[in-house]
Amino acid sequence: WAPDKTNQTKLLIYHKPEGLICTTHDPEGRPTIFTQIKQPKQSRWLYVGRLDINSSGLLLLTNQGELAQRLTHPRYQIEREYAVRVLGELTHDQKQALLDGIELEDGPARFDSIEEAGGEGANRWYHVTLAEGRNREVRRLFASFDMAVSRLIRIRYGSIVLPRELSRGKSRLASQEELASLKHLVNL
Q: Quick one: 27 exposed, middle or buried, by C-beta within 10 A (0-12, 13-18, 19+)?
């Protein structure tokens, strides 16, 4: 982890669009989040949890390695919330199975909550929460019922909610109150 040379913790709230990957450099030459976010002069941004190339929404970045590590470590059980659009509708039994746990190739996984959030035609929106962030976990859980995810938007990470006024590709520094609430979740 890169230390912050100014010793002042900063948190950036970024609305990641689809089509960007979460890395500092991609050997395949695909655009990364850092094509839109400039590194600070005295340190560097560390992203907190990844969003895959086909996902959008809230991505947190910090210049403080300890904060980044704690926010992603499973021990702290930081809740993430996603808005998910799928083709089809979950049955009551499928919802219950997703809450109870599904065996995936890398072990059991489950949602902490599932809320219906509307939809038209064959598409349905759900808001789901989970407290870990394994690779493509939300998509894989829906795929266990042969349901394709057509949109995946992270709308909350811990106590930070994606601001409605923050358009895709834009970012802003978190307030001291937002930063303090997040640090409190991980005992910093």
A: exposed
